[in-house]
Amino acid sequence: MPTIEFENVTKLYGEDTVALDDVSFTISEGEFVILLGPSGAGKSTMLRVLNGLTQPTEGSVRIGDREIQGNRSEVGMVFQEHYLIESKTAFGNALSGALSRNGLVQSALGMHAESDKLTALEALQTVGLLEEAGQRAESMSGGQKQRVGIARALVQEPEIVLADEPVASLDPKAARDVMRYLKKAATEQDLTTITSLHQVNIAREFGDRFLGIRDGEVIFDGDADDLTMDEMDRIYYGSTQDDTTIPTGTTTKEAGEADGGRRA
User: Fold this and answer.
1) Could you say which of 141, 157, 173 is where a domain stops?
2) Could you give the CA distance from residue 244 to residue 262 in angstroms, rounded to a whole number?
3) Residue 238: CB partners within 8 Å, gap ≥ 6?
4) Of 199, 79, 231, whose CA–CA distance to 142 is shortest?
5) Mean pLDDT, the chain, as a whole number?
6) H or E element, residue 194
7) Which of 7, 72, 163, 216 could form a disulfide with 195 if both were Cys (CB 3.0 to 4.6 A apart)?
């Protein structure tokens, strides 16, 4: 399982929009890392760079001894929007994670190896949806759909899983369920996992390590014990003044709306 290394990564959009500003850090294999920060801080850009969807303007990103260039099959992605095929079953959607192994034509014709089918069923079991394998996505709840999205990423057999605001549109119970299954999958399969979250309290429940991002820079790197209210104020507001303390339950979306940060 490879480590991830950001080395002096800068990402510009256009000539003057700085999404990432000389970012450097290393993530060890098997870590469960949560990205925190206001809207526009650069969290999504960081994940896109990791997935090879966006190339850095300067610097490099390495997975193990290989520099990221283009989309990587060993990196699984869980999106905020589920991007499921609504008319397909949970099993069919999960099985689409094997596309990189089978090719588009074979997948379209339903020509899947028995090993891939078994992997899809195991992935659905991991996220607690084995009994719903035959249920169409269109009849599933938002939380169930997101768990199918996790299963699809697992079928890809990745070394790294990235999740971009995977519970942003869910109620607190469904959000915790999704995060619980994501953490379960990461632990059972020893996957290096990086997810951005809006919900601060939920992040603290599940994260092993936190990267606080503001204006494209990593300004905090630590565990839950290090993530004090002063640090939270600094991440979301750029200060530690008592009158800006984030109330219990505040989400990063709310913090972002109070912040004038740059979009990323």
Assistant:
1) 157
2) 20
3) 214, 259
4) 79
5) 86
6) strand 192-196
7) 163
Shared-domain flag, residues 164 and 153: no
Residue pair 153/141 in contact by the 8 Å Cβ criterion: no
- Residue 235 belongs to domain with CATH number: 3.40.50.300
pLDDT digits (tens, 9 = 90+) for 190-201: 999 999 998 889
- Smallest CA-to-CA distance from 44 within 166, 205, 142 is with 166
Give the number of residues written for the chain. Answer: 264
User: What value does the mean pLDDT take over residues 82-89?
Assistant: 92
Q: How confident is the model at residue 2 (pLDDT cuts 50, 70, 90)?
A: low
The β-bridge relationship of strands 4-13 and 160-164 is unpaired
Dihedral sign, Cα of residue 20, residue 21, residue 22, residue 28: negative
Number of domain units in the chain: 2
Are the beta carbons of 256 and 215 closer than 8 angstroms? no
- What residue numbers bound the domain in which 126 lies? 77-157
Q: Please check whether residues 58 and 169 belong to one and the same domain.
A: yes
Cβ contact 62:88 at 8 Å: no
Q: Are residues 194 and 263 in the same domain?
A: yes
Model pLDDT for residues 53-69, shown as the tens digit of each residue:
899 999 999 988 888 76
